[in-house]
């Protein structure tokens, strides 16, 4: 691998780390601005001024904000996300299982949605402006236009209530057999797929249509390639960068934006965990989850950037 | 008896070809226009037919019809295209796909755009051969390497491993020719294969294509707007205009004894007699020892360049692409601040950076570009475009401004009726005229013309040059005329600077620069300009003293 490309990748990663630090400051500052007092929240209305003062001292709440920030950041970097106020449990331990569940759901939704979106996009380009294209675009658009909860409830109504194929409540537990687990996530995964499909499909279509105007596409047609092979072999490789970008954005959404779907199907993932603790005003948990979501988002976008760099033959094979 | 239509020895027989397209003019219902009106031609095996005409003549459209292909919404609506004894128009989509890349191959104008940037050259060169199953990969690659050798490409064994961006434009054009020859077709359609190249590179590519055609006995349709080029490679020439046949005959007959008036107009050399003006005593703009670089000083594109421009005169800057011609213009206008050296204007130094220059200095230096259509805002009318500098520099408003716009339109020989038109409604020559009017509106002392006639048909370009010369007389404006075309230089320049790899290698009054003895590069440049002489190509190649840089 050549050095300019390594340099570019190193730059992206460094930039990502900087960005993540900036986000951590924002998250910390945001939770500080919130009204209310942690000690008060823990001890309740009936606390005496002495016990409040004692707890504040104990939690280090009297230190200046920047010291508390670095104490928090130091903890995060060493894997200590603090303890939840509401339950007193270690946040890192409770998040681990939740994060795994969310990633499991996102993974299977992505496995279905990404190839499906790209293939539908390719087909739409092949039959562009014809009825196949319009049908694909129309259906995809309809599926994103419906709110997630609507799709979720429609799925529950038909598949869980009427035909009773899949469970309506996606309970999963540790040590659950793989098959049962897959059955449990079938409906939320379908709902998520429908939500992200159209965006990726339409972007694939637009990106490929953009390169279909190129002279090299004409060259391929004049070699006698079939219409679909022209798109697959000559147009698609040059449209890959924007497609990867939109795919990564949607993958990020599958992880950080699933709150509604998780709540509908009572799926024990990160989204539900976040919502639960926001209502309980559990600031350390909200901070930790926020930071993890930000890391996922930034990480996937870095991957998209790097993939776009690697996909560019001019950067991969300099003169 | 299916072959009853075929004449012996005839490869391609196009009869009464009619090609139409649907256009969608803004604000009007779509309408069908006819691009090609009942054109017939025959081509024998192993022969070369040149198709020539201005843009819009239907040359490429006819050429592509031999592959059953229409660009955009173009449709073949009438006639027959008989290739190897059968009418290919009856074969349907499947039939077209079988003949494309096997019986007929295509060489595009810009190989740089026609190669897929994502794949290695070899994969693209053998693709059609493998697709049609006429050879195994090993055989096809062997054939490709042999073709690379024949087309005198450097490192023929390994050039196929490269990506298109790693190879120069002239080389890519030859690789594209190899790609067309690789599947051993009966016919190749060359669509302006050397038009996008520098003259010095064009001559090599032309010679390579000519040798390859001779040695492989392939027939060819050679499409170009340049008669001098087509005279070097064709057996016969067909002149087209507005989709109709004007004249068809042997190469010698067409260039020596044209029968039609239009052919005659194309053939006769349009030299504008321009008496050279002697340089005055003091130049108003002088560039002194300017060095400029891109990428923070890494790539030096101008090395110690000094030139002077005198009031009301034209300095022509010639050289091939990458020689630094346009960079010189960027340095003078302040778009690319020089690293060293100064530009003096009216006896005082100009600020290096564009942002540091007062409005008055900006007004004095105007530019006209090669691509008139991208140099204008497509959503503004001609009146707004020309009126903008009037408002900006002179604060003109309302009636006063409109009167001046009308006056300027008059100067560029376009009537008042154009004031409300949009650029899309103008022809290429008219667009360039509007750009000229816009630059004149600022009443500048100097107009930098960057390849202003390169994108235009010869007859239209001729009109633009005459206009520029006339305006120079009226307005006493000076031109810095950047071009790669030596014929243009002869008709417009008072002095000439020849640039090569960022340096001025020859500089002086026109008469002196164009008089021998020449330095090696100027000699190469002058001897590479195609002449309308049969056998010129061979003579020119033999007489060369140095190889061109594009190879």
Automatic annotation (TrEMBL), chain A:
Residue ranges occupied by any ABC transmembrane type-1 domain in the UniProt entry: 99-304
Superkingdom, taxonomy of origin:
Bacteria
**Transmembrane segment boundaries:** 12-34, 103-127, 139-161, 181-200, 243-268, 288-311
Localization in the cell: Cell membrane
GO annotation, cellular component aspect: plasma membrane
Q: Alphabetically list the UniProt keywords.
A: Cell membrane, Membrane, Transmembrane, Transmembrane helix, Transport
Residues in coiled coil: none
Q: Which InterPro entries match?
A: BPD_transp_1_N, MetI-like, MetI-like_sf
What GO biological process terms are annotated to this protein in UniProt? transmembrane transport
Primary location recorded for the protein, binned into one broad class = membrane
- Pfam families for the chain: BPD_transp_1 (PF00528), BPD_transp_1_N (PF19300)
Q: Which Gene3D superfamilies match?
A: MetI-like
Bilayer topology term = Multi-pass membrane protein
Question: Is Cytoplasm there in the keyword field?
Answer: no
Spell out the family assignment given in the record's similarity comment: Belongs to the binding-protein-dependent transport system permease family.
Q: Please name the PANTHER family in this protein's record.
A: DIPEPTIDE TRANSPORT SYSTEM PERMEASE PROTEIN DPPB-RELATED
Name assigned to this protein = Peptide/nickel transport system permease protein
Organism name: Mesorhizobium qingshengii
| Taxon lineage | Bacteria, Pseudomonadati, Pseudomonadota, Alphaproteobacteria, Hyphomicrobiales
From TrEMBL, chain B:
An individual GO BP term: transmembrane transport
Mention one GO molecular function: ATP hydrolysis activity
Q: How does it sit in the membrane?
A: Peripheral membrane protein
| Pfam entry (one) | ABC_tran
Q: Where in the cell is it found?
A: Cell inner membrane
The cellular component terms of Gene Ontology attached to this UniProt record, alphabetical and capped at eight, are: plasma membrane
| Alphabetical keyword list | ATP-binding, Nucleotide-binding, Transport
The answer to whether keyword Metal-binding applies is no
Q: Where is the ABC transporter domain?
A: 17-267, 285-526
Which family, according to UniProt?
Belongs to the ABC transporter superfamily.
Q: What is this protein called?
A: Peptide/nickel transport system ATP-binding protein
